[in-house]
Every structure is written in C-alpha cells, then in structure tokens.
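ok so i was messing around last nite and threw this chain in just to see what happens. nothing serious, just curious
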Amino acid sequence: MVQRVAETLLRLKREGPGMLLIEQKLDIALELADDVLVLGRGEVVFFGTVPQLRARPEVIETWVGVA
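result:
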C-alpha cells in the first residue's frame, strides 16, 4: 500500500503541482522531495535540498531518528 501511494505521489510530482508531504518513511520522503524542512521542538532545524540533508547525517540522526 505504501509503495502504491509513493508511486501515485511521484506521478503527481511529474505532472507539476506542488505539494506538502509529511512522511515518517525517510526513504520515500527523500525520493519525492525537492526541498526538505526538518522541525525540532517547533523550530526549523534544517532547510535545504535532499543532497544537502544527506550531507548532514547528524541532522537525520538527531531529528529524524534514523541513521
């Protein structure tokens, strides 16, 4: 089911509308995202592109909870 939703979101992304995605599965979120915003305790702790986030593993580990 999750994969079907991800495939639908990818199709919608290709068609052009913008979307806000709040997703717990980081691999899916990063596959779909152009820009990433990470909130921690109600504050923006990171805003940037997917490659910029991947270059900051401490942000992922601390705020997203996966390594």
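not much to say yet. The CA atoms of residues 53 and 59 lie 7 Å apart.
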